[in-house]
Amino acid sequence: MNRALLLAVLPVLTLAYVLPSSLDDDPRCDSDWTYFDVTSSCYYVGSENNFDSAQADCASIGGNLTSIHNGFENNFVASLTEIGAKESTDDMTWIGLRYVANKWTWTDGSDTSYLNWMKGRPQKDTNKYACVQASILQDDYKGAKTQWNDVECNIKMRKYVCKKPAKF
């Protein structure tokens, strides 16, 4: 095959191979969920809810507000909700960390060995500021991009992220 023909055909063959697999839903996750291979979990992004309503929505579709167990997962969750964020404390993302019975716990019951607090957090009044939002802003918010802030649970956040195990 001559070089000119190969150069003309190669991009078409590449698109034919790559495009269908990238457009298909991952069979390990339900429609509208995103698979993350590092955790073998599926993630769903919801909108405009306070903490308890967001957790109830996640539970109704088989998950929980997301737990986060390492920096890779933290950055992945941030990337899911980054578009459209502004510099505002209610324009961030609910994650599933909550202060219950004098300790921070994930809504899915998993361990809290990984924590990524903003400087000066958590706040001292943990009964008032008992739920956690992730800073996912495109522009670094107070030097805390991808870090966590404890806030009142009744605030409506712009986004929340649900998580559930993938299907195998």
Automatic annotation (TrEMBL):
The signal peptide, as residue positions, is 1-16
InterPro entries named in the record: C-type_lectin-like, C-type_lectin-like/link_sf, C-type_lectin/snaclec_domain, CTDL_fold
| Entry keywords, A to Z | Signal
UniProt KW Plastid keyword: no
On whether Signal is a keyword of this UniProt record, the answer is yes
- What residue stretches are annotated with the C-type lectin domain? 38-154
PANTHER family cross-referenced by the UniProt entry: MANNOSE, PHOSPHOLIPASE, LECTIN RECEPTOR RELATED (PTHR22803)
User: What name does the UniProt record give this protein?
Assistant: C-type lectin domain-containing protein
Source organism per entry reads Nippostrongylus brasiliensis (Rat hookworm)
